[in-house]
Amino acid sequence: MANPVTVEKFGVGQSVRRIEDPRLLQGFGRYADDVSLPHQAYAVVVRSPHAHAAIRSIDPSAARAAAGVLAVFTGADLAADGIGDLPTDRSRKRRDGSPAYATPRPALVRDRARHVGDPVALVVARTMEQAVDAAELVAVDYQPLPAVAATADAMRAGAPAVWAEAPDNIAFVWEAGKKDETVRAIAGAAHVTKLDYVVTRVAAAPMEPRGAVGEWDRRTGRYTLHTGIQAPHGLRTLLADQVFKIPQSHLRVVTGEVGGSFGMKSGVYPEVVLVLWAAKRLGRPVKWTSDRREGFVTDEHGRDNVSTAELALDANGKFLALRVAISLNVGAYLTPRSAGPGTNNVGGIAGIYTTPAIHVQTTGVFSNTTPTGPYRGAGRPEATYAIERVIDVAAMELKIDPIELRRRNLIPASAMPFKTGLVFTYDCGEFARGMDMALSLADRAGFEKRRSEARKQGKLRGLGIANPIEVAGGPYTAMNPDTAELRVNADGSVSLFAGSTSMGQGNETAFAQIICEKLGVPPERIQVFWGDSDLLGAGRGNGGSGALTVGGSAVTRATEKVIERGRKIAARLLEAAPEDVVHQDGKFTVKGTDKGVTFANVARAAYVPRQLPKGMEPGFSEEASFTPSAVTFPNGSQICEIEIDEETGAVRVVRHTVGRHVPQRIADLRDRDRRGDRGRARRAPHRRRRRRAHGEPDARERTDPRRRGPGARSGALRGAHVRADDGPAARGLVHGLRDAARRRHARLRRRFPRGADRGQSARRQGGGRGRDRGRIARAPECGQRCPGAARRTAPRHAGDGRARLARDPGRESSPLSGREVWWRRSFEAAVCSTFALTARMPPTSW
Fold first, then answer.
1. Cα–Cα 20 to 30 A to 427, which of 38, 245, 772, 799?
2. Which residues, 6+ apart, have CB-to-CB distance to 224 below 8 Å?
3. Is residue 417 reached through a cis peptide bond, with omega within 30 degrees of 0 on the bond before it?
4. Is the peptide bond before 475 cis (omega within 30 degrees of 0)?
5. Could you tell me the pLDDT band of residue 475, with boundaries at 50, 70 and 90?
6. What is the reported pTM?
7. Shortest CA distance to 185 belongs to which of 316, 354, 323?
8. Which of 195-204, 788-797, 829-838 has the highest mean pLDDT?
9. 3-state helix, strand, coil in the chain (%, to 5)
10. Cα separation of 451 and 454, whole Å?
11. 804 vs 418 pLDDT, higher one
12. CB distance 322 to 310 below 8 Å
């Protein structure tokens, strides 16, 4: 058995400098646009300017004759080569139970364009400038057709049909929960609150736009794709099996730094198919890089649903039932990712409340818009907004304090484990404690005084609360495994091949910390590899807050296997029984003696056959997989205080307070990890502002292309994005679980990965340096700008690395940690709730 290793400077929970930062800060990161191959050609996609149009003809002759043009391809060329359509979702059902229409989606459309940006032709030239110029010469004869963009409009009788095979524009119908019980409870309730609400469409603005380089090797008959993707193994599977119909061994997918994604870059896009196919046709690598306006109409969008929530209460304000009907706009095509936001995470609608009967129905709706998919929460923010907003409305109707109404219905800690009325079963939680801590930190008792002072200045001031809970490490019903291979080289250095990718969260550092603590190997002798489908047979990738909970656990298991193998080799060297050998601090020793051998010596012996136990093959590598037995449920309370200027309508977030609920040991790890070096501590407020800046647009500055009409071109970049310093720094507090809950988390506490996954985010979320566990990280109430916040420079890898970024006037989103999504989703719900309360309540209630 291996005893715990004492590591002074680079162990689990230690505050360390990230090992990936030097290369990123010096411009040595390898993003999609950094990939340039010999004899590389450049591709530009000709796209439809219409939301719905028949394609009468395509004349590429002028473009083919242009200088530097190597080829102009159309959908007919693609079909002639037998390239399959992009994957669709064949598992969904319509309202009558019949299969949903599996929409065909070729990489280049042939007869009809169904949304602005649909790809029509591909131009490949020797230089990017030549390809751009030639694309303007492709003559496409369109016949505009009636189009529909808004979700509600698409469901109305007589609306233009996106697909003739689905004349009512219904893509699928899905439901979950206790339908009959919910109907009865609502019918017999003393009070029913009904809320109609809209969650608008949002578009991603990653640090680097999407890009891809395709390569074809005529000697081996293999494709290689370089692109920024969260799950390279998953992309390889879909492309090989469904599009190119080749063995997976004939396709390699490589990703480096992703450049921002939050789900948007996880899908299969037409451009990755086109660059691979064109590379084979032309016998040379082909590169495509999106610009900002192109990305706005082609990157998968998020959210976009029109919903109704009904909350039934008894005479004492206890929740009896909740019914939610969601109309989810999936855009023009039904992809394998379309239904996810409306089906995978709806369990969060139950919230942290005791509602016994809940029923949810999600209706997918076709429209002439860019397809939607999981982005920044994948349905979690929508679920939180539904329950928290309808509670606020019920409180107004019943004239009950919203906090008191929540308190009456909170799940008590004594009820754990608790089966909610919809899907989820919580293993532990102290929800009342977390809410009380957040209320105290937010100084809710002094809110009325602050509101009165604001009113004298002509401003409306409101306070809202959200108690979000979500699933992490899922999906809930089918947990995805991850794989890791640990290779100990003959000199004792270690190479890790991880199935989890990194999107800036510091996974390389966290994985190295696990290895360092488990094996006692110094960090400078550890190398972490990820993102290459050739290096590992399978990998989960990154998403759903599972990189460390699942991927880190796979790494831990691999280290345990390595130690077990090492014990047997050490026993041979020490002439002892394997069960008498223990490993600690990078050394194998015989129990009760000072007789031992170093890890490096064992590694060297592992490659010498005569020094191995009988029957053991040379080598020192182990592969391990991990599938979580259950998901986890991050939760907490977020309280937001805002001001609205009555004259200008300007909205300012003046306070943001958070109380988080995490297991005790993980909280300890976070708080120690949070201290960091002094420079990081000073930068912490900026990180919290950047994190929240991703949430504020959903609440007040949403980008919605439908408002410009279905045939209009993108205008998203005419206004600036919300900046990190547009809001105040957050106030945060973390509390741990008590003894009963800690016992339920015994297995979790024994393993580092869960702590690692949440640890670094808490360091960024928490207060300044030197905070002990349970201390309050305070920040000024005013939204003052921080020194240097406006000094922004475009990184070398952004856009195409040259003039494209300079041409785009919009500000870029910050590359944030995937582990910080809980914070941003929760903030989004709190701001939305507060804004709704502040803007819609009658003036007399202020």
1. 772
2. 214, 215, 216, 217, 251, 252, 253, 254
3. yes
4. yes
5. low
6. 0.80
7. 323
8. 195-204
9. 35, 25, 40
10. 5
11. 418
12. yes
